[in-house]
Fold these 3 entries.
Entry 1:
Amino acid sequence: MPSFDAEQGCHIVRIVYDGPGFAGKTTNLQQVCALLPATKRSELYTPAELKGRTMFFDWMEVKGPPITSVAVKFHLITVPGQIERNYRRRPLVEMADVVVFVCDCMPDSLPDSMRTFARLRGSIKRRGTPVPVIVQANKQDIEGSIEPHQVRKKLRLSDEVPIIPAEANGGKGVRETLARAMRIGLQALAAEPGVAEAVLTNADDLFDHVLTFEDTPDEQQMDVEELYINAEEVDASDASLQMHLSARSLDDLENKAKRAAAKAKAQASATQSGEAAPAPEASPERAVVRRKRRKARSRER
């Protein structure tokens, strides 16, 4: 929930950018730096970086409109996208007031986005309190990218979750995403009857907090949705569905398979020997039907 920093005399709202590696989280903050004048924001702070990749987080502060004459500051925080850095990502998600999920919409990268979003769902479940989520469908400028309505289906998003198309490299969609996140954060702040005391109010304190997880990188269990990331979406025909449903149980399927294999073997043997294939043995169900037909005929006579 949003908090209050008594030392600075302002409300703090944390907007956490989550997503897989190379999805465009840091690019979003870099574009925010270019869009906003220096008087409205801090510098972008990255405590550790390796070959252009965020190892801990990116952090910057943006001034927001005041609420009842009290200043509001938004802390924009990105998480490391690498799977092996998940233990650093979790505490950042847990302190979020709003989450912006940056989805890499390139077809080859979509499974990573789906897997990371499944982890985000798991983190939100474990934190125990709901958090608003906005999805940014990034890299829409790349040919063949997945369109926002398809992203909604792939991530199993409800209609209430905003999804914003973006081309973060060119700045398109960055301002819209941030504005929506800030609006949701302000609404949450206005709805809170009481505001908690702010902690970790600057990048240095946040870095010290994240470092405490280095000695015990306790990985949580995989969320169940991750198990189905690569499952194909199958649109079965009516005929195939009816055939599948006609089997009353797995035993029926197994018996049918055995009978088909025996029949094929008998036909193959008969073909080799030049003899006629023996008639297939009648199933119990067919025998019952034949007896009923005989009884019906005898009554007619």
Entry 2:
Amino acid sequence: MSSLENRIVLITGASSGIGLAAARMFAEEGATVVLAARNQERLSEVEKEFKSKGYRFLVKQCDVRKSKEVDSLVQGAVSQFGKIDILVNNAGTALYGLVEETPDEALQDNLEVNLLGTLRCTRAVIPGMRKQQWGRIINIGSVVGKRGWAFHGAYAASKFALTGLTQSLQAELANSGITATLVMPASTKTNFFSSATIVSDSYQPTMLGPVQSAEVVAKYIIKSAKQPKENVYTIWWMKWSFILAEMVPWLYSTASKQFFRRKNKQNQVK
């Protein structure tokens, strides 16, 4: 198993949730961590924590929707530490509601973070990784990036796109010493749902299926940095459920439709 000692790790969306949990674990493994996020107040709190623990780190405010900020983030990290070995594209936003009620602006903002933000960060680090002939790119996707679900149309679209982007990277980076991994969490206990954009009054987001902690997902991220695989499911049986869904598509479709009808009935009662 590859050591993470002295590796330089850049994590977006690192001020809370999965990103922060991963940053802590990388730091405990001896890596130097660059924590990037939009929320400066939370970053300041993380900075105090990491200082008190003696970690090697850098915090940097960055909005991945803006190319100049992403370029400045990467250049600053390379200037201070000489390289970036591992990129964890974790920054993401949630968007829930009926497709017919989803405005262009909401979808565009979601794509700017979930898809284009990942593209910008990846594009910025690959030249340096190619030069050193080593790198790990770990994209945080979602199980809804494999199968769509009612009220998740726009969000699922962004995660489906991320799945395709990661698959393309895997082909383009073959034999370069750089790997690309797609980590697919299920529902995770973070502030992700509470900060979601809701475009339909008829829906309130709830955690579906098995629920896991941010720390559980972070462990899979660490493992992906040490022993990279192309696709990582943080709930082991999810892989087989998707295989089953491809073999018996009506079963998954029926479950999704029943969920939609049940939610509508609940909202009518309210």
Entry 3:
Amino acid sequence: MMRSTAGRAGLAQRARIVLLAAEGESNTRIADRTGLSRPTVIDWRKRYERSGLQGLEDEPRSGRPRHIDHAKIVAETLKPPPKKLGVTHWSSRLMASRLGIGNATVARAWRDYGVQPWRAETFKFSTDPELVAKVTDVVGLYLAPPENAIVLCVDEKSQIQALDRTQKMLPMQPGFPERRTHDYVRHGTSTLFAALEVATGNITAACKPRHRHQGVPGVPQAGRPGLPRRRLWNRAASGDGQLRSPQAGRGPGLASR
């Protein structure tokens, strides 16, 4: 409780009082270390002795009860923002403006229900029957690479594409952020292959109309005409499975992940 980053600061301070008391510290010493008054320390110790951890919680406050329904705020948050706002998810200020309340109230409701509209995670249920074999091959390349071979890690980092996810997005729910698959389906793109020469910092690039394994070996060759041609040993597929070459042979040369 005292080390939690999600809990309230006051609750952590009360837990510290209890821990210091368990270590044999006097009430005066605890007050000095926590920055509280001695009567406050005594009061929280008594409440802990009487009710345990429940005694460290805030008691119901006096006055008019809260009339803002946190469940309603969360229900509105789970709905997508109007297109006219030009945003993909709600912020506390946008939601507060829509409901006519303070953004701090919206933030408290989100915190109580564990709603985080700004977060998105990925998920994937693999249907590839060769998944275990591919993972074993990739790990094996790093643990025991072939003799006289260079291991190349090939991945994609293009974000400007017309893409669809392979499965429907799972919407945000209380306690769970929005989730989407990490793989996707392309809709008309031009693939940019690029190779970085670590020793010199030179980058060689080539645009190809299709995303195929044949385009990978030609990129370093285009930038270095004197570079001897080697056989590409493709041991596993990339994330979308389109770079796997069934004719990839064994032998010295380049080993691609």
